[in-house]
Amino acid sequence: MKQISVIFVLFIVLGLDAINGYDCKIVQFIFGDSLSDVGNNRNLPRSLAQANLPFYGIDFGNGLPNGRFTNGRTVSDIIGDKIGLPRPVAFLDPSMNEDVILESGVNYASGGGGILNETGGYFIQRFSLWKQIELFQGTQDLVVAKIGKKEADKFFQQARYVVALGSNDFINNYLMPVYSDSWKYNDQTFVDYLMETLDSQLRVMIQDTPDVL
Ligand SMILES: *[C@@H]1O[C@H](CO)[C@@H](O)[C@H](O)[C@H]1NC(C)=O
User: How far, in Å, is the centroid of ligand 1 from the Cα of 194?
Assistant: First the structure.
């Protein structure tokens, strides 16, 4: 049996050191799946991937489900807290606006989402990585309209980017016979397809802020 030689969860943090003389806050933009979702699916009314069972959130805030698929903080919460960055607000949070983006960044992560569009289809609603990147482009437009292109470029260049997903492309796609990807590909060609897709996604993500890399 061939082994799938890929790290299931990709965790990439891209960033650039603070730019001198600019006092906009350093914030994070988070792209991911249920490991990083802080409330997007909660605001997707038809999504079947929901973190609303009683044990979710028991060690967080008031102990009630808060949209995180965990009892406490997400991995991104923990890493961001350690670095000392504000916790980005879920893209679909009702409080989301330009000021919130500039203060704390945005979290686009969505339970059930994957690198591939078809991943997690049976959850009906979830943001795939392409969708999350599309939403990020909308965020960039909003910030440019609010503070101008020059300042916005600096803001996005000094921000931190977390891209952490990939396990659903196996669990809720390739390894499930209900998805055509499970019979169209073999282990190696599927991993190649994933990596090619992620490569083009990261390029589109940073096209307006090439200095991030
Ligand atoms: C995935 O969806 C995006 C839009 O959300 C689209 O631009 C892209 O072509 C789609 N990719 C495939 C392989 O269907």
Answer: 13
Beta-sheet strand order (sheet of 89-90): 12-14, 160-164, 28-32, 105-107, 89-90
**208 alpha carbon – ligand 1 mean position (Å):** 19
* Closest listed residue to residue 50, CA positions, set 98, 118, 110: 110
Q: What is the pLDDT of residues 143-183, one digit of tens each?
A: 999 999 999 999 999 999 999 999 999 999 999 888 888 88
User: 21 pLDDT band (50/70/90 cuts)?
Assistant: very low
Q: How far, in Å, are 11, 100, 105, 149, 177 from residue 209 at the CA level?
A: 20, 21, 16, 11, 39
Give the closest residue (by CA) to ligand 1 atom 7: 130
pTM, full prediction: 0.87
Ligand 1 atom closest to the Cα of residue 118 is: 14
Q: How far is CA 28 from the centre of its chain?
A: 10
